[in-house]
Every structure is written in structure tokens, then in C-alpha cells.
Amino acid sequence: MYTNIYIYIYIYIYIYIYVYIQNGEVWELTSCHRYITSIYTYRYVWHIHIHIYLYIHIDMYGNISIIISVFIHLYIYYAKCDEQPSYLFIVFFSPYARINNLLFFSLQISDSPLFNMCLPEHLLWYPLLGFCVHDSVPLPYLQASRQRHEDRIVVQLQNGEVWELTSCHRFRRDEKSGLNSDYNGPKSSFPCVDGYVYDKSKWDSTVVTQWDLVCNREWFAKVIQPVFMLGVLLGAMIFGYLSDRIGRRLVLWSTSAGIFFFGIAAAFSFDYYSFMIARFLLAMSGSGYLVVVFVYVTEFIGMKARTWACIQMHSFFAIGTMVVALTGYFVRTWWIYQIVLSTVTIPFVLCCWILPETPFWLLSEGRYEEAQKVVDTIAKWNRASSCKLSELLSLDLNDPVGNEPLEVKKHNLLDLFCDWNVGTRTLTVWLIWFTGCLGFYFFSLNSVNLGGNEYLNLFLMGAVEIPAYIFMCLGMDRIGRRSVLAFALISGALFCGVVMVIPKDYFIWTVVVTMAGKFAIGASFGLIYLYTAELYPTRVRSLAVGSGSMVSRMGSIVAPFCVYLSSVWTFLPQLLVAILAFISGVLSLMLPETMGKPLATTWEEAARQDTENESSGKLFPTTNNTALKNVEVIDSGGSGLGE
Fold it and tell me: Out of the domains of life, which is the source (predicted)?
């Protein structure tokens, strides 16, 4: 006899951060000493309270219900020294998640170039024999001198030579002039062979400071991110194709292992080129992982839980963004920062080999006995009676067809354009992917111009994505995928238009409308992952999601250049995003609705989505690759496999 089991776990974390900030610094330098006078001293006082509630309920039938609630209270105070701190704001965040029968969490932080490639203030380094200057000094004197002497400093050595130092050049005055800043006489230019002095007040070490990627080598730093995005493009396409050829499980394990291995390799790169190669391979692995893990979860979750399970994966991606921000705040050395983020994947690398292959893929390959073993395992874990695939599919497992893999056609990108209707669907989906990614990254990049603490800004940027995903899940299960997608895209276009007509004096309203636009575009970008997986049959599902992800990365590459268009006209970027979002929203209305429908296994079933509104949940194909009728799967009171 079974009994109800209740497990309640409560975790409380309290973090207190007290930071002093010096402003208005005045430095005095002598031959052997340096002095600083603090005119004003300010302080930030942070109180971070984190409450984690984990509630597990196992009923008499063996069904498992899990509720996780996370409450984060962030208090920030700012005040002058010896004054009472003034209250600024509180951030309250409470995500809620419940997954019945099958629980799958995935948190993936492959790499974030936001803080490990920052360019600090820098000057040419020169052995100043008469001054106490070293490359570990955070440039208080140098910065003050540059302000007084038009972005340069003038120093005099013990031998009497007078030098002018700038960020990328150094000159020796040919005539004796003392430290006069308005010297107009002849100068001798010398190349920079002694390195640079970097401002270490924010970052102890970055990729830029590691290999001096400044001045005439600055373009080396600028190509790091485009090369990374090229790896993302290729990874989404290659691993999406491979997962349809060799299975989801093997690709899932190899990509997660690649994220860890290449992430560590990037941290221990011995030169710039090895770093670029490691990051390129890291981008391929991370992109392939995201595509395949989404398809994997989609094929294991039934219709009733599919929306919440798949969309909330994006919430964990947002949580990963917040983790990146916290890691960047506490770790200011780039290679340690890289190692910390790479180690996040260790638990999954060690455990993912336990995960089985999806029954969908096994059945599409004709491997019925292996699919039956997976079904039996799922039923055992759920303490439910297993269904027999031979009965559901009218198979004779004694026949070679039931024991040996079928010779099936291998698909490629051209199969996404096999006829006019499918090709039109693919182009529409690709446009939505591109627009969603372009708008998402445009709003993210443009929000940096709001100023403030860059770590706090990034943390909040991840936190504000959670409400968009919750809204999207509620709408998708009640209104439908197509309607919510069209509403989100058209709303994003309207918000972009509203921003263009808000007067400059109403800055707060500009910020509010901009964030609303990001919510709308972000919701559409998260929805298109699941929608694409439901629009295409099993044999090309990973290929379809991978190709869409590849097209979306083109949008992420274009996004920075879209921001630069504001130099031509202030609202030109918003106008471009608004036009694309509106067109995508209108075209999305021509896509079939997939709410409440089973995943298609063949092109015929995918084509019937336009005309049929099947109410029965059908999971498995028959021997002639048509979906079985009148079979309900993953039912809460059934076998544990269907709905």
C-alpha cells in the first residue's frame, strides 16, 4: 500500500556587501612615495536575502509533484560617509515551477564575453625613473594629468628628457622645455615596445590586457565576438543535423562535454590565436547543446506539460544571465571568470550518459525494441503499467522489421523546402527567428546606455525576462501559439513606434516603453523555439530548430550595427525593428496552430496541421509512418507516457 510522502526543504542565504567608493581623488607623487587625499567618500550598502523553498509531494500512485519558490530581496543603499544611507529600491523575484511525472532542469552557461573582454583605460608604459609609477597603479595620477594636458601626460626623467605619453603614442621633445604643456617644438616619435599601463580599478585582468589588444592591435579584440558568433551559426546547423542522424543523446553528451573542455581550454590559452580557436569550438558546442537539449525535452514531454517545461528552460537561461553578472562582480580576472562559468556544466557532463534516447527518434529510425525499453523504464519510474508498442503500432516484433533499424532516408536542409507550403512555412519561421533575436539583442544592447552599475544592469536584465516567459506560458495554453506569437511581435512593433514619439523630457516613460518592447520581443523569441519544434516532423525537427537558431544568430550579429544606425537618425534602429516585427507578426498568422496537437512524425501529419484539430494525444507512428488514432498518451491516470 502506498502512502503520501511530503518533503519540505527550506534554504536561507544572506549576503551583506559593504563597498567604499572614492571620488574627487588628489594624488601627490614623489621619487619614493605617493599620497592620496580623499575629498569625498561614498559607500554602497547591499543586503541580499535569498529564500529557497523546495516542496516535494509523492502521492499514493507514485506521481511526483515538485514546487520550487525562490525569493530574492535586494536592498541597495547609497550615502556619504557618516550619514544615514538613503533607501533606493527593492527587487522582488519569485519564479514558480511544477513539473509532474518527469522533471528536467537545464542550466547552461557556456561563455559570456561581457566582462572578460572589457577595454580599460590605458597609457603607454615607460620606465619613469623619477616617479613612483607602476602598472599596478589604478591610474589616478595619470588620469588627472591627461585631463589637464589634453589627453596626454608630460613627464621628465632623471636625465632631463621630457616625454609626452598618450594612449597609443609616445614622443620625446627634442628641445628642453621642462613640463610645459603648450610645447610646440620638434618631437621624436617612438614605437610602443614596453607595453601599456592599464586601469585596474574595475578589472584586474581581461583578454585585452592579457595580450595588449589596444591601439594598432585593437581590431584583434573586435573580431573575437564575430568569430564566436560564426561558431554559434555553424554549431546550431551541424549539431542539429547530427542529432537527426545519430540521435539526441550522443550529441547532447558530446556538446555538454565540449562546453566544459573548450571553456577550460580558453581559460588556459597560451596566446591570442589559441584563445580564438577555443572560443570558436566553445561557441559551436554551446549552440549545438541549446538546440538539441530543447528538442530532447520537447520529445519527452507530453502536450499538457510541454509548454511550461519547454518555455521555462528560457527562465533558467535568464537565471544563467544573473549568475554571469554575480560571477563578474566577484571575479575580476578573466581566466578565473572563464573557469568558474565552465565548471557549471560538470554535473550534467557526469550524469547525462544516464539519459536515454527519445522514443520519438528511436521509432522514426525503426528501432522498436530499444524504444520499448525506454518506455518500460519511464513506466517503472512512474510506478505505472507500461504500454506495449507492438500492440499500439500493430507490429510483429518477431519480424526483422521490428528488430532491426529500418533503412530510412537521411534528411538535409533542402527537405525544409520540399514543396511550396513547407518552403513558405520555413521562410516565415526563419524571419521570426531573425526578428526575435535582432529585437532581443537590440533592446539589451541599447539598455546599457541607461548608465549605472554594469553588473547590476546585467543582473536586472536577466531578472526582467522571467515575467515575459510566465505571461507567454499562460497565453500559449489558453489562446494558442500562433495568436500569442502574432500579438507579441505586433506589440513589440507598436512599442518601438511609441518610443519614437515620446518627448526627450519624459525619460522615465522612454525607459518603461523600451522595457515593455523588450518583454514583447523576448516573449516571441522564447515562443518560437517550441513553435518550431511543433511545426516540423520528428526526422527534421532538430534540423529545423538548428537552422532557425542559425538564422537568429545572424540577427545577433546585425544587432550591434543596428544600434550604430542611431548616429544617422536617433530612431532609425527602432524603426527598422518595428518594421520587421510588424511584418513577422502578420506572416505568423498564416502558420498552423499546434496547441493541443501531438508532435508530427511525418510530413503528411505536419501538413494536416493546417486543416485538422485533433483532440486525441497521439505519440507514436505506425509501421507505415502514420499517427495512430484514438490513442491517448501521457495521461495523468494512465501509463505515465502520454497525456
Answer: Eukaryota
Domain span at residue 161 reads 122-201
> Are residues 17 and 152 both part of a single domain?
no
**Helix or strand holding residue 360 (H, E):** helix 359-364
Q: Is residue 638 part of a domain?
A: no
For residues 148 and 260, membership in a common domain is answered with no
At 52 the three-state DSSP class reads strand
Residue 525 carries which side chain, given as an amino acid letter? F
Q: How confident is the model at residue 309 (pLDDT cuts 50, 70, 90)?
A: confident
pLDDT band for position 151 (cuts 50, 70, 90): low
Q: Is residue 100 part of a domain?
A: no
Taking the C-alpha atoms of residue 35 and residue 28, their distance in angstroms, rounded to an integer, is 5
Q: Minimal CA–CA distance to 543: which of 326, 288, 196?
A: 288
d(CA 329, CA 332): 7
Q: Could you give the percent of the chain with pLDDT greater than 90?
A: 7
**Domain for residue 627, yes or no?**
no
Mind listing the pLDDT tens digit for each residue in 260-275?
Answer: 899 899 888 888 899 9
Instruction: Pick 34 or 380 by higher pLDDT.
Output: 380
- In eight-state DSSP terms, residue 60 is T
* Domain CATH code at residue 225: 1.20.1250.20
CA-based nearest residue to 628, from 593, 599, 596: 599
Q: How many domains does the chain have?
A: 3
Give dist(CA 291, CA 547) in Å, integer.
9
Over the Cα atoms of the chain, what is R_g?
A: 29
pLDDT > 90? residue 432:
yes
Strand 187-190 with 96-97, pairing: unpaired
Positive or negative: CA dihedral 610, 614, 619, 621: negative
Residues 164 and 195 in one domain: yes
For residue 17, what pLDDT is reported? 46
Same domain, 84 and 147: no
Q: At what angle do helices 454-463 and 420-447 cross, to 10 degrees?
A: 140
Predicted confidence band at 64 (pLDDT cuts at 50, 70, 90)? Answer: low
pLDDT band at 45 (very low <50, low <70, confident <90, very high): very low
Q: 65 pLDDT band (50/70/90 cuts)?
A: low
Q: φ, ψ for residue 267 (rounded to 5)?
A: -65, -30
b vs e for 80-104, b when ≥16 Cβ sit within 10 Å of the residue's Cβ? eeeeeeeeeeeeebebebebbbbee
Say if 613 falls within a structural domain: no
26 beta partners: 37
pLDDT tens-digit map of 339-368? 888 888 788 788 777 788 888 788 777 787
Residue ending a domain, choose from 45, 76, 94: 94
Instruction: Give the angle 470-476-482 at the CA atoms, nearest 5°.
Output: 135
Name 444's bridge partners.
Answer: none
